[in-house]
């Protein structure tokens, strides 16, 4: 009885800290040894300052920090949070390595690796883009997804979307196109973005196309991303187009800059999928190159009286494995066609119309009654521009700057059948093979004057 009483008076030990080889004789944590121990329990590699497992990038490091806390709580009594951050940095240094080589012959999925030649292996390797979706060859056809697309797009445009989604599965930019899908609003375009998130996971970035063009730090957000989705594309014209045109066709490293850091050469193979209620235009870039990089799809009008299904996205998410197979079918077709998309007559007409909306010089050059292309004729540049201004006045168009007008003619003189000459008429600059005298006097007053 007395022994039991004495035992009751002894203080009970609250925790029993297990012995660790990463604890020094003085009881302090040896960070390099702890990093080695932790990596033996959780194999990882660090690429570009981010931790990866064979299952892909670790988006949230909080669970790792929680486990580190549980391991060191008996040995770090002060500044624990700061010590955990130091240990995290030690772990990253211990497993730091060069990013794996970009592989364009395979797609890393949740349950293994799919090769573009059609075979699949459950083996995994470290990679920059592992999709969160499994490859299930026997997955049923995504009937609700296909029904949704038939209601949203014209039948002849669906193959182009299928090919583009498949195109984004690989880290390549060989097709040199960006997807634009425009409508009047309410058709359900944004549902596609949600399905793309199911397919691409953290390899997809949601942001603004305008930001990519105008913010010098935006490129850093897109490094090692397969896709950028802008589900509410702004309709105002871009002040410049250099960045977007470069990224759409990029096949090499490019300068990227992060706030407060020296710029470095980074790897970008991001593709763009943008959804909005109007075409994409440039404020100053009127070149064909800007529009040539666009794959422009238009949606059907929303039927009057259509009742939207609030559970539509959930139904389509349940078909994601089948949607992946559908996208792979598009990828194989695209590769077979040498990375040339299936462009319908409607899509080609959409792009032509967008080009004319963004550059009314094209509309003027198609007009009749203002000038004539005639062998041997001559026209001064200033007279040709005045005729263009009159056409704009007659058609409620805003005339572009004279320099833009002349540069467009000079850049396209071969296809137009005209020749620019610094001394076309006397000492005046102008164009050969352009005749305006037979059609419209240069100084005819506007009927509104």
From TrEMBL:
GO terms for molecular function: ATP binding; hydrolase activity. Residues 156-350 form the SF3 helicase domain. InterPro entries: Helicase_put_C_phage/plasmid, Helicase_SF3_DNA-vir, NrS-1_pol-like_helicase, ORF904-like_C, P-loop_NTPase, Phage/plasmid_primase_P4_C. Keywords: ATP-binding, Hydrolase, Nucleotide-binding. Residues 1-23 are annotated as: Disordered. It comes from the Bacteria. The keyword Hydrolase applies. The keyword Hydrolase applies. NCBIfam families: primase_Cterm. This is DNA primase. It comes from Faecalibacterium prausnitzii.
């Amino acid at each position: 009885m007395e022994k039991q009483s004495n035992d009751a008076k002894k203080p009970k030990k609250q925790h029993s800290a297990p012995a660790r080889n990463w604890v020094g004789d003085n009881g302090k944590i040896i960070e390099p040894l702890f990093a080695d121990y932790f990596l033996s329990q959780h194999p990882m590699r660090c690429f570009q300052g981010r931790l990866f497992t064979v299952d892909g990038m670790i988006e949230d490091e909080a669970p790792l920090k929680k486990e580190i806390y549980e391991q060191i709580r008996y040995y770090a009594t002060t500044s624990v949070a700061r010590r955990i951050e130091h240990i995290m940095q030690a772990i990253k240094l211990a497993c730091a390595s060069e990013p794996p080589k970009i592989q364009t012959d395979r797609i890393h999925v949740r349950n293994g690796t799919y090769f573009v030649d059609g075979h699949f292996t459950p083996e995994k390797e470290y990679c920059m883009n592992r999709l969160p979706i499994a490859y299930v060859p026997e997955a049923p056809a995504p009937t609700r997804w296909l029904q949704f697309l038939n209601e949203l797009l014209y039948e002849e445009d669906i193959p182009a979307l299928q090919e583009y989604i498949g195109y984004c599965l690989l880290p390549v930019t060989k097709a040199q196109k960006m997807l634009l899908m425009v409508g009047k609003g309410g058709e359900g375009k944004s549902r596609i973005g949600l399905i793309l998130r199911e397919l691409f996971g953290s390899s997809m970035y949601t942001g603004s196309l305008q930001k990519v063009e105008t913010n010098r730090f935006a490129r850093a957000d897109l490094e090692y991303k397969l896709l950028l989705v802008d589900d509410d594309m702004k309709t105002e014209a871009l002040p410049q187009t250099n960045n977007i045109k470069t990224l759409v066709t990029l096949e090499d490293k490019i300068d990227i800059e992060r706030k407060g850091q020296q710029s470095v050469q980074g790897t970008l193979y991001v593709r763009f999928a943008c959804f909005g209620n109007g075409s994409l235009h440039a404020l100053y870039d009127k070149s064909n190159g800007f529009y040539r990089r666009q794959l422009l799809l238009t949606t059907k009008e929303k039927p009057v009286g259509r009742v939207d299904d609030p559970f539509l996205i959930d139904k389509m998410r349940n078909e994601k494995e089948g949607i992946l197979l559908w996208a792979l079918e598009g990828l194989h077709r695209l590769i077979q066609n040498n990375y040339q998309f299936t462009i319908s007559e409607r899509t080609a007409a959409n792009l032509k119309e967008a080009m004319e909306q963004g550059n009314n010089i094209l509309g003027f050059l198609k007009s009749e009654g203002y000038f004539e292309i005639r062998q041997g004729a001559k026209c001064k540049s200033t007279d040709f521009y005045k005729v263009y201004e009159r056409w704009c006045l007659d058609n409620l168009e805003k005339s572009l700057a004279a320099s833009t007008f002349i540069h467009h003619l000079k850049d396209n003189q071969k296809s137009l059948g005209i020749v620019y000459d610094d001394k076309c008429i006397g000492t005046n600059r102008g164009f050969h093979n352009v005749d305006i005298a037979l059609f419209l006097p240069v100084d005819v007053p506007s009927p509104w004057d």
